[in-house]
What we know:
Elements: E1 2-3, E2 7-13, E3 19-25, E4 30-35, E5 44-51, E6 62-69, E7 74-79, E8 84-91
Antiparallel strand pairs: 1-2, 2-3, 3-8, 4-7, 5-6, 5-8
Amino acid sequence: xxxxxxxxxxxxxxxxxxxxxxxxxxxxxxxxxxxxxxxxxxxxxxxxxxxxxxxxxxxxxxxxxxxxxxxxxxxxxxxxxxxxxxxxxxxxxx
Length: 94
């Protein structure tokens, strides 16, 4: 999803089957929801790098999160003003 000049959220599948997602916003803090129905069958690990609590004042402030997801998952994305979000999704061995 996107709105030109305001925000973008995209996903792309690598040749090895991993998925990469990225989002960024303009100077407005933003909350988005990402539906992961594109993943297909199976269980996945999602490695997320997202804006930290002080990201609106310090661009180096971020945190990492690991989540178990599947194609029925919806992921909440919270971005600080001028912020961003990135994730790598890999098939789980479980």
